[in-house]
Amino acid sequence: MNGVIFATGTVSAIDPKTVRARVRLPDHDNLRTWWLDIMQNNTYKNKDYCMPDVGEQVKVLMTPDGVEGVILGAVYSGKDTPVISDPDRRRTDFADGTFAEYDRKNNAMAIGGAIKTLTITTHSDITLQTDTQVTVIAQNSATVKTQKATIDSPETEITGNTTIKKNLLVEGSITGEGGMSISGGSGGAAATITGSLTATDDISAGGTSLKRHEHPKGHNGAPTGPPSS
């Protein structure tokens, strides 16, 4: 047979391995095509892969007998309508509820829905840069695993309790406003200070006041007075 026809039909079967499908054509005596190639954007250096679902409406360019041809792509129908109607937004929705959308008018990118895991793998650097702020919200927990982590910021604020399971080295000064409690681990000293220690008030050791304690070795065994400053 000579010539080609342009037709609308419904996908009746798919072959994900060969990227082909068969199409039922109600307007052409309900003809069922042979396995036709599904048009992709790229197949050489850049490669795209997108398969239609069985039951999806598509446009076909083929020989009249349906043996040779190509599936040009899917088209909406009165039954299957787009989820948006905005020329400034490009969006892909998946059957599980996941979506990816870009709004060029508002410069907004959104990815969401039913995503359970999101994996980004690279063998080089990753840079995330913004002119305003970055917010990370994890309802359960967040973990950063690396050989060395650096926070390069003039100020760092932690609003919750903080646990450090290994050593802490502070090269600057330490200022505490809510008091301090230190206990020695594994029988070691709770604190070891190299250098002088200055306290603006009294110091108590084992219940004994440094400023007000007395020694029972005064005159005739009488207690001495408190230490002089």
TrEMBL record:
Chain positions covered by the region annotation Disordered: 201-229
InterPro entries named in the record: Gp5/Vgr_OB, GpV/Gp45, Vgr_OB-fold_dom_sf
UniProt domain Gp5/Type VI secretion system Vgr protein OB-fold: residue ranges: 8-76
Domain of life: Bacteria
Entry-linked Pfam families: Phage_base_V (PF04717)
Designated name of the protein: Phage baseplate assembly protein V
